[in-house]
Specification:
Blueprint (H helix, E strand, L loop, with lengths): L12 H31 L4 H4 L1 H24 L1 H17 L1 H7 L2 H27 L7 H28 L6 H26 L36 H22 L1 H7 L5 H25 L5 H20 L4 H14 L2 H10 L6 H10 L3 H13 L11 H14 L11
GO molecular function, one term: fucose:proton symporter activity
Subcellular location: Cell inner membrane
Protein name: L-fucose:H+ symporter permease
């Protein structure tokens, strides 16, 4: 009879709920950037390629901050890592006030960079934190469950952004920038309050991945199965970093120009396209709940490979610009994208033991793909928005290869698990 693996333990429930909420908050912040992308095109008269620098500022911070965040987490623990991320998040939000007053796109990018440093810290900490709250064999389910609430955040973000930023037309830039300023004051205040509340949460003792035992179940606990290997000698980890880079690249480009696609291909107003962005994020929420359920019956790596191939097909259809057929495929991309980020993350951390925190830093740093790709897609989108959706296909091919073959953990003897 197959052993039933628990989702978590009662002693971890309060902490798990709090950490899960963090996934939602950074989902709000990241998708708000996609609304800002279009908003800055309107109120600051920047091109699509230049507006892609919004994503460059946010996700570029991941490249800079992920390793320091991992070092900080290893030295001071998960709790203080979360607090550092929340404080940086709030600071970046409050910097929108002087940026709006200066009417400077460059200043906004600095604010977004600081905010992005906070998001990078939270993501670096939260994924291994969530994975450690119970049996490692159910870590894929826990991380995907938490990422489902990240998907809730990605629906709230564009809903807030559309309501406050895209509803009206602005006669002068300051009208549109005042709305940005007021919105981010509210966001910064909420995040600061969350940080204060989290400072009072007591974290239960977690399994120490630095320790090993001859009696431990290597499948259940995150023990390094090849302790003589350096981190980058673990092939599954290296492939996870690459897969996350291309996964974030595909996400960043697809999300950044969703509103433009709705406006230029479908003929929607900016406000209507923004409202469909909420539906777009809803498909990801649906995909994460369904994906978490399916992982009870289908291995996480196999589901990842299947969803990656599905998105290759969706991108081809989107690139044709066939009206509602292509728009439906665009909505479906986010459904199939849903499980990719958390599944790549949890597969990449398997059986790394004492390397886990450092590995989390590098996998988080792979998110820098979302800093580069929107600019490249923007260059094509300035000519033809539909054609630009051919570019993510190469990303999904890399993800397929990881899920189909290169996810496997190698023991010292070279045996795959």
């Amino acid at each position: 009879m197959k052993e039933k693996i628990s989702f978590t333990e009662n002693k971890y429930m309060i902490t798990l709920i709090f950490v899960t909420s963090l996934f939602m908050f950074w989902g709000i912040a990241i998708t708000m950037g996609d609304v800002l992308n279009k908003h800055f095109q309107t109120v600051l008269n920047v091109s699509k390629a230049d507006s892609g620098l919004v994503q460059f500022s946010i996700f570029g911070a991941y490249f800079i901050m992920s390793i320091p965040a991992g070092m900080f987490m290893k030295k001071f623990g998960y709790k203080y890592g979360v607090l550092l991320g929340l404080i940086l998040f709030a600071t970046g939000a409050f910097l929108f006030v002087p940026a709006a007053d200066a009417e400077s796109f460059g200043f906004f990018r600095i604010a977004l960079f600081v905010l992005g440093c906070g998001l990078a810290t939270l993501e670096t900490v939260a994924h291994p934190f969530m994975a450690s709250l119970g049996d490692q064999r159910s870590s894929d389910r826990r991380v995907n469950f938490a990422q489902a609430f990240n998907a809730v955040g990605t629906m709230i973000g564009p809903a807030l952004g559309t309501y406050f930023l895209l509803r009206g037309s602005y006669d002068i830039p300051t009208d549109g920038l005042d709305s940005v300023k007021n919105l981010y004051i509210g966001i910064g205040t909420v995040i600061l309050l969350i940080a204060i509340c989290f400072s009072f949460v007591r974290i239960p003792t977690l399994v120490d991945p630095h320790k090993s035992s001859e009696e431990v179940d290597l499948d259940a606990v995150n023990i390094d199965v090849a302790p003589d290997k350096k981190l980058f000698q673990h092939r599954h980890f290296v492939w996870a970093v690459m897969a996350q880079f291309f996964n974030a690249a595909a996400q960043g480009g697809t999300w950044a120009f969703f509103i433009n696609y709705g406006h230029e291909v479908m003929g929607f107003s900016d406000e209507k396209a923004g409202s469909y962005l909420v539906v777009f994020m809803g498909t990801m929420l649906l995909g994460r709940f369904i994906g978490t359920f399916l992982m009870r019956y289908i291995a996480a790596n196999k589901l990842l490979a299947i969803f990656a191939l599905a998105n290759v097909v969706m991108c081809v259809i989107v690139a044709q610009g066939w009206g509602w057929i292509s728009f439906a495929a665009l909505l479906a991309i986010n459904f199939f994208f849903s499980i990719m980020f958390p599944t790549i993350f949890s597969l990449g951390l398997k059986n790394l033991g004492g390397h886990t925190q450092q590995a989390s830093s590098f996998i988080s740093m792979g998110v820098v793909g979302a800093a580069v790709f929107p600019f490249l897609m923007g260059l094509v989108a300035d000519t033809n928005i539909a054609t630009s959706y051919y570019l993510p296909i190469v990303c999904y091919i890399i993800i397929f290869l990881f899920g189909a073959k290169f996810y496997k953990v190698q023991h010292e003897e070279g045996v795959h698990r």
